[in-house]
Design goal:
globular; membrane; about 0% strand; mainly alpha
Length: about 190
């Protein structure tokens, strides 16, 4: 995993992808937040986190020739994402602990900031789960040397839900008033 990550990050595609998506996030976060009535700074955090997720999941894999986009692998991908036995095994075990940790932590910041920005945790959780599945399907269609596998979707989903839970906790802590605030003084 570590060698693959260094190879991947040494290519130009991740840097180009991140720079373009980050610039877009900075440019649109304020107008988007105002239009959607979201919190401004958490919206920027959400968009930058999504830029990181897309940078890590969509550029071509290192040392793999880029194929022609097509739907030939979609059946296998859908099968991987819907095979209950494979998804259960992904949930309870893994052979690559570093890959599992990376796939989980990748989605935590995006959903954490999304909860703080949007304040709709169930919607954020649903979008996080669907986004991960969409990334897996995109990887199978684009033929960029990436593989659509159910265990990535499971681990991304765990990360998305963990980020939602942390966002809900942070929102509750932030809205709590210190003891005595708002109370009238004793007489």
């Amino acid at each position: 995993m570590r060698g693959w990550a260094f190879d991947f990050l040494s290519q130009p595609w991740p840097a180009i992808t991140f720079l373009l998506l980050s610039a877009l996030a900075v440019a649109v976060h304020r107008p988007l937040a105002e239009r959607m009535r979201w919190a401004t700074w958490p919206s920027l955090g959400m968009l930058l986190s999504v830029a990181i997720v897309l940078t890590l999941t969509l550029p071509p894999a290192p040392h793999v020739p880029i194929g022609v986009p097509g739907v030939a692998d979609v059946d296998r991908c859908v099968g991987s994402l819907s095979d209950a036995g494979q998804l259960w095994r992904a949930l309870i075990s893994t052979t690559e602990r570093g890959e599992r940790v990376g796939n989980i932590t990748m989605f935590v910041p995006a959903t954490f900031f999304a909860v703080l920005a949007i304040r709709r945790p169930l919607l954020v959780a649903a979008v996080g789960v669907l986004m991960s599945g969409g990334i897996e399907l995109t990887q199978s269609v684009m033929h960029l040397g990436r593989e659509c596998v159910g265990y990535d979707w499971v681990n991304n989903t765990i990360g998305a839900i963990l980020g939602v839970l942390l966002g809900v906790l942070a929102a509750r802590v932030a809205t709590r008033q210190p003891a005595g605030v708002g109370e009238s003084p004793p007489r």
